Amino acid sequence: QVLIGGRDTPEGRAAVESLARLYRRWVPPDRVLSMGLWSSELAKLAANAFLAQRISSINAISALCEETGADVQQVSHAIGTDSRIGPRFLSAGCGFGGPALQKHVLNLVYICESLGLAQAAAYWQQASRAGGQGPRVVDMNDWIKARFVRRVITSMFNTIRGKRIAVLGFSYKAHTTDTRDTASIDVCRGLLLDGAALSVYDPKVTPEQIHLDMCLPKGSLEQPRRQHTAVSLATVDVARSAMEACRGAHGVCVLTDWPEFRRLDFHAIFKAMMKPAFIFDGRNVLDHARLREIGFVVYALGKPLDPFL
After folding, report:
1. Which parts of 81-215 fold into alpha helices (H)?
2. pLDDT tens-digit readout, 172-187
């Protein structure tokens, strides 16, 4: 879809039409939208803000599912059959990332605050900005990542200090090398701050990029006023394979939904890990029943908790 914004003047309308005519040469005409300057700007920001809100909403439901014994995948399937809602982007996970979602939500917050719309800004950002209750999209995304870290720590006998944790997946989604605002950064930092030693494997992201992202606190450019605690990378290794990352590990965290993770030899991984062997599936991409048959203690986000947990 192409959004073209321009001023509501004869010159502005002519410029918009000239650009639209150019795009219609290879983009279907109904996908080329012309509108006012501010309308085009807000349409892009609002689209990503609504998407971020949708993801944060199902992530909030996933926490409720764990506490009640419900299955978030069953709940999201039922929600998705409602024609008013639809099935897309209803997969729970350990936080959204990427180059657009959080940045555009924060841009929307900034515009609202600049225009004196404190309540509207607080709706998208955080409770501390204004009174009242309502969805706090950015806060929910941070909370779900922190909650995942706490689940890892509490499951492994309330401490991971000195324990080796394998992290499978570092990009913000599968089939990309893009790590901008990836949830893996905050999850890895949370594990490091509790004293874990990490072994990170991603099929596409380079070791240099992983170390660079871990050195620069996530969000420090978008949120310079926020406190960012430094972490040491002395206990962060980048593995060349999933098996190498998991060898000798106490636990495995799946943070990106790479298809190859479904095909791993978990029998061999189980034998190579310390016992009890934990798997924390932050993307619900694995066969949890099969993993339990092998002997793993499994945490699946938004699923009924393993009796061990």
Report:
1. 101-114, 118-124, 137-155, 183-193, 207-215
2. 999 999 999 999 999 9
Task: For residue 280, give both structure tokens.
Answer: 């924390």
What percentage of the chain's residues is helix, strand, coil (to nearest 5)? 45, 10, 40
Tens digit of each residue's pLDDT (9 = 90 or more) over 151-164: 999 999 999 999 99
Burial class (CB in 10 A: 0-12, 13-18, 19+), 225: exposed
Task: Measure the CA–CA gap between 281 and 168, rounded to whole angstroms.
Answer: 10
253 pLDDT above the threshold of 70: yes
* Dist. CA 198–CA 235, nearest whole Å: 6
Q: How many C-beta neighbours within 10 Å does residue 208 have? A: 9
Q: CA angle, 161 as apex, 155 and 165 as ends, to 5°? A: 65
6 has a pLDDT exceeding 90? yes
Longest Cα–Cα distance of the chain, Å, equals 73
Dihedral over Cα of 145, 146, 152, 155: its sign = negative
Tokens of 206: 């380079």
Residue 154 tokens read as 């509490």
Q: Which residue has the tokens 């030899």?
A: 265
- Distance between CA atoms of residues 264 and 278, nearest Å: 15
User: DSSP characters for 247-260?
Assistant: TT-SEEEE-S--GG
Tokens 């914004």 appear where? 5
In this structure, the dihedral spanned by the alpha carbons of residues 215, 218, 223 and 229, taken in order and rounded to 10 degrees, is -60
Helix (H) or strand (E) holding 237: strand 236-238
For residue 108, pLDDT over 50 is answered with: yes
Query: What tokens were used for 271?
Result: 């034998």
Half-sphere exposure of 118 (CA within 13 A, CB side): 6
